[in-house]
Amino acid sequence: MTTANANYKVATVDYVGLFKICGISSLVLVLGTIVLFFTKGLNYGVDFRGGVEIQVKFKDKTDLGTLRDYLISKDVPVSQLQTIGDEGQNEYLLKLDSDEKSDLNAISTKVGTALTEKYGAGSYDFLKNDIVGPKAGAELRTSAFKAIMWAILAIMIYLALRFDYKFAPGAIVALIHDVTLIVGAFILTQKEFSLQIVAALLAIIGYSVNDTVVIYDRVREIEAAHPNLSTTQIINRAINETMSRTIITSLTVLGVSLVMLFWGGSVIHDFFFAMTIGVVLGVYSTIYIAIPMTVVYEKFISKKSA
Question: Residue 261, SS3?
Answer without folding.
Answer: helix
